[in-house]
Amino acid sequence: MAIDQTIPELPTPIVPLSEADSRLMTTEWRRYLESNKQFVKLITDELASLLTTDTSTATTIASLQASIASLQTAVAQLGRGRFKVHLNDVDYGLVASDFNTIIFTHKDIDTDNWYNTANGRYTPKEAGLYLFVLNIFADTDATGIPPNAIIFKNGVDVQYGTFYVEPTAGQLTGAICLGILQMNGTADYVTASVFPSTGVTILSGLKNSTNFAGWRIGA
What pLDDT digit, counting tens, does each position of 114-150 carry? Predict the structure, then answer.
């Protein structure tokens, strides 16, 4: 609000001031303030309004900045830990009728270097929900029973896959396993596993058929 008012002339002090003069000046100032009470109030109200507006604006800006920073952090965390690993077209030996941990030897993607090709463990360092996708390709046994794909968390089988069977026994068939798992971002890890049927000892190493992938999808 603009203030358009002429400031009244102030009483001029006399120097030096005697006690009587001091009392007189005090009286004069009281009269001045009293006679210009409305003007003084106008100035005071304007200052108060400006201070309130500035404080409110600063608070709003700080709140918006905090929200933007929080959103940027959330966006950055989504999709963290993306990885896709495979066997680089080299077949993988299996023990029939048993859980076989697949140690994938090659990485197509591993944005945070959380997949260990030495032990086959994926250990994310950001807590949250993760989506995992395991594809395998191997022989069925003589009776047509296919292998299955399984995801383990901390050494425990937590998600079994779905498989399809080729028309003729002894032919290659595939299985896929999808899992959404909560990971603590410290010690939790996942591994890929296959359970082949009797007599099946080879897992196809074709990288477009046998592979393991995952990424963070939420908190």
Answer: 999 999 999 999 999 999 999 998 876 666 677 899 9
What DSSP state is assigned to residue 126? S
Q: Which domain holds residue 64?
A: 19-77
Q: Is the peptide bond between 16 and the residue preceding it cis, with omega within 30 degrees of 0? A: yes
Pair (44, 130) in one structural domain: no
**Would residue 114 count as lying in a domain?**
yes
Note the pLDDT of residue 14.
46
DSSP state of 209: T
Half-sphere exposure of residue 56: CA atoms within 13 angstroms, side-chain side: 6
In a domain, 212, yes or no: yes
The confidence score (pLDDT) of residue 149 equals 95
**DSSP string computed for 156-192:** EEEEE-EE---SSTTSEEEEEEEEEEEE-SSS--EEE
Say which residue, 53 or 90, is predicted with more confidence.
90
Spatial separation of the C-alpha atoms in residues 105 and 139, rounded to whole Å: 21
**194 and 136 fall within a common domain:** yes
Domain count for the chain: 2
Q: Are residues 54 and 97 in the same domain?
A: no
Instruction: Please indicate, yes or no, whether residues 190 and 111 belong to a single structural domain of this protein.
Output: yes
State the sign of the Cα–Cα–Cα–Cα dihedral 152, 157, 161, 166.
Answer: positive
